[in-house]
Structure formats: C-alpha cells, structure tokens
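Team,

Forwarding the record for the chain on the shared tracking sheet. I've put the sequence and predicted structure together so nobody has to dig through attachments.
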Amino acid sequence: MIKDAFTYTIAVSVFVRGFIIFNLILSPLTVLMSFFIATMGAANPDKPGFLRSLGITAGFIYGTPLVVLIWLIAVGKVFDFVLQIAAITTPAVSCTGIVIAAVLFVVAGNIFIDNLYQFRQGNYSISFFALLITLVYAVVVYFSAKIPITWISI
C-alpha cells in the first residue's frame, strides 16, 4: 500500500491538461490583475510605460507557474530514472519524483534567490511554506485535469 503511493505515476499529459484548465478557470482574475498591476506600474515616477509593465507582469503571472511545472516534471523524471521508479522513455512522473523535485526547487530558491539568508538566520518557516505552496500547486494542477471540459482533448 505504501509502496504503491511512492511509485504511483502520473502522465505528463494530465499535468498539461490540468495546467490549461487551471489557467482557464483563473483567467478572469489573472487578466484583471495583469492590467491593474501594469497600470499601476506604468504610473510610477520612472514611467516605464504600460506595455513594458504589462510584459513583466504577464511574464510573472503566467510564466512562473509554467516554469515551476516544467521544473517539477523534468527534475521529477530525472529522479524517477535515478531511483528506477519509471523508465526515462515513459511519459509519466511519479509522486516521489515530484516531491523530490519540489524540495530541490525550494532549496534552489534558497540558494540562488535568497542566498541562504533565511537559513543563516535559522528561519525555516518560509522554506516550509514555499514547499507547501509548491506541492499544493502540483496537486491543484493534477485535480484540475479531472474537471470535464469536452473541447480540451489532451
């Protein structure tokens, strides 16, 4: 039973479908947020312009979740191969690989973005919260694929 939980694999197409459906559900909110942030960013004293602010905002709002999902799938697939859970040619990734990839994502963020400042301070709660957000994101994308939308046939 526990071994099945560690070796349970999820098809990559499920994650792609879930990502598309999740973005479709959130699109009214994200579009309004993008325009609001771009308008406020364009109105600052530096006057970068609306399109530049919109590009940066859209990059963060739409690009970051995509990069996180690609990271989870790619690094999870590598660990599936290393731990011999699934073959590298199988278009699926295990739950164990996703959890390990999420941990490595948080560690990489601590090293490259935070420069280990929180670790040196002994504050690990931010890292645990980031790990929780990453794992919840993966679960939400997985369950978003279960929402029946007939015109998405991935």
